Amino acid sequence: MASSMRLSLILFFACSLFLQGSLGEIICEDLPTDVCAFSIASSGKRCLLENYATKDGKVAYQCRTSEVVVGGMAEYIETDECVSACGVDRNTVGISSDALLEPQFTAKLCSAACYQNCPNIVHLYFNLAAGEGVFLPDLCEKQRTNPHRAMIELVSSGAAPGPVSSEPADITAAAQPATAPSSF
């Protein structure tokens, strides 16, 4: 079991090195969909998984380049260890701050295995939390000391979905990257 996992990881990294070496750079649109989410192109822009309807009416997936630039990181494909440690799913279409409302997700994101070792994922959720008016390091500290209280404070911060409004929402704050602490 461990040897097959090790072989899979070696093949994954060999393929990613081959992909990077043969193209000279990471272009989101050229990435396989199973490594798209949580990857960063050579341009420093995040890759995101999108779905679309094919001509025969089936749903297919494609990797696209977002407009979100990640400062200090480029040409990065997230490791399977971080995906697992942080509780994220590479097959998720679109990423939302709603995941922060799930206690199990927040516990994994704030765990030492994720928070201290996976700066790409932590930075992404730091920005999503900031867009909701939540400071992720504070949320994680509360998660470690009193998980129930952390969820109450997150919901009371306004991050929870509220009543539907007829006015358009201002999504520019969520789309703008916040400055993460230097430990990321």
TrEMBL record:
- Where along the chain is composition biased (Low complexity)? 168-184
Which regions span the lipid bilayer? none
Matching PANTHER family = PAR1 PROTEIN
Write down the superkingdom of origin: Eukaryota
Region feature Disordered, mapped onto this chain: 159-184
The question of whether Signal is a record keyword is answered with yes
Do the record's keywords include Electron transport? no
Q: What is this protein called?
A: PAR1 protein
Keywords, in A-Z order = Signal
Task: Point out the signal peptide segment.
Answer: 1-24
Which Pfam families would you find in this protein's record? PAR1 (PF06521)
